[in-house]
């Protein structure tokens, strides 16, 4: 039996793919979470075989969850299931240690195949994403120079969050966030928060309504 934790801030979505995953009888959802902090707490209790996570959630993103789970357990297996599937996000998720990435636009059987592949220790990308990577569509960007913490701050500030909100979300001091904001701007060669938002939007890191 493959034991799963589902992480998505929409209960209806979690219910839908729980039914999908459990229909063949070889998978069981042992925990569900709506945020990164909740997922980390439940992971410690349930120790699922695989965590299936969205990327876009209130507060910290699924990328931060991948980092935190791998920091806690180097063998943690994570599968991303998200509608936010830009090349940059796929690249970042895999770099952080995700074993699979499935777009929510994929056929339902792709998610089932992905779970079984990840359980076996194999990487899985939904077909359209795999083709994009084979075509060399992933760009080499200045984002590669950002640490994961810097990337999370960049994402939150690009969404219009305040320094105080970023600090609270990431459990950092406001001074640390302010210092990292300056470093991020230097690394990316930009000078304003508006420029950060435009850069994030151009590369599909935030939805257009957040810009």
Which terms summarize this structure?
single chain, alpha/beta, Rossmann fold, 6-stranded parallel sheet, 10 helices
Write structural notes for this entry:
With 211 residues, the protein is an alpha/beta fold. The chain folds into two domains: 2-134, Rossmann fold; 142-210, Arc Repressor Mutant, subunit A. Helix content is 51%, strand content 13%. It has ten helices and six strands, in the order βαβαβαβαβαβααααα. The chain has helices at 11-22, 36-46, 62-72, 87-96, 108-119, 127-134, 148-158, 163-170, 174-188, 193-202, and strands at residues 2-7, 27-33, 50-53, 78-82, 100-103, 124-125. A six-stranded parallel β-sheet has the order 2-1-3-4-5-6, with helices on both faces. β1 (2-7), α1 and β2 form a beta-alpha-beta unit. α7 (148-158) crosses α9 (174-188) and α8 crosses α9. The protein is globular, with a radius of gyration of 17 Å. It starts with a strand and ends in a 9-residue tail after the last helix. The mean pLDDT is 88.
């Amino acid at each position: 039996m493959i034991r799963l934790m589902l992480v998505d801030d929409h209960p209806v979505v979690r219910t839908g793919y729980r039914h999908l995953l459990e229909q063949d009888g070889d998978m069981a959802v042992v925990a569900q979470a709506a945020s990164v902090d909740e997922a980390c707490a439940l992971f410690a209790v349930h120790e699922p075989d695989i965590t299936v996570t969205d990327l876009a959630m209130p507060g910290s993103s699924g990328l931060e969850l991948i980092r935190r789970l791998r920091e806690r357990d180097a063998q943690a297996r994570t599968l991303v299931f998200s509608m936010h599937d830009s090349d940059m996000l796929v690249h970042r998720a895999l770099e952080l240690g995700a074993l699979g990435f499935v777009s929510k636009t994929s056929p339902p059987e792709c998610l089932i195949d992905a779970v079984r592949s990840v359980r076996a220790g194999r990487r899985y990308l939904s077909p359209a994403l795999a083709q994009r990577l084979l075509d060399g569509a992933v760009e080499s960007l200045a984002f590669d120079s950002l640490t994961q913490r810097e990337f999370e701050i960049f994402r939150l500030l690009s969404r219009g969050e305040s320094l105080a909100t970023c600090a609270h979300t990431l459990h950092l001091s406001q001074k640390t966030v302010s210092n990292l904001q300056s470093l991020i701007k230097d690394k990316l060669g930009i000078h304003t928060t508006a420029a950060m938002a435009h850069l994030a939007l151009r590369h599909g890191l935030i939805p257009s309504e957040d810009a």
